Here is the input.
Amino acid sequence: MKDPRDVILEPILTEKALRLKDEHNQYVFKVDRNANKIEIRHALEKRFGVKVKSVRVVNVKGKPRQRFTRAGRIQGYTSSYKKAIVTLEPDSKFDFLENL
Here is the structure.
């Protein structure tokens, strides 16, 4: 089994993610690209001591970006990543996100 610190990379704190947290007790995390739903669930329960009700996973593709320099135009892509939307049981909360 993977280490929980390797599975859960960072929380995603966008306006939509904060609205999901307030209205539906759902939290959004950037996770390892090779992690599955079961590994994400076990990592969250072990690392933060919460009860997970469900996990949804989305593969986010990188967006095309252009950058202009003195040498000309450079074209590339942002990084692709995997995003997990986690619904917690009604009596569970993350303590580190409550002040947002």
In short: Residues 54 and 87 are 5 Å apart (CA to CA).
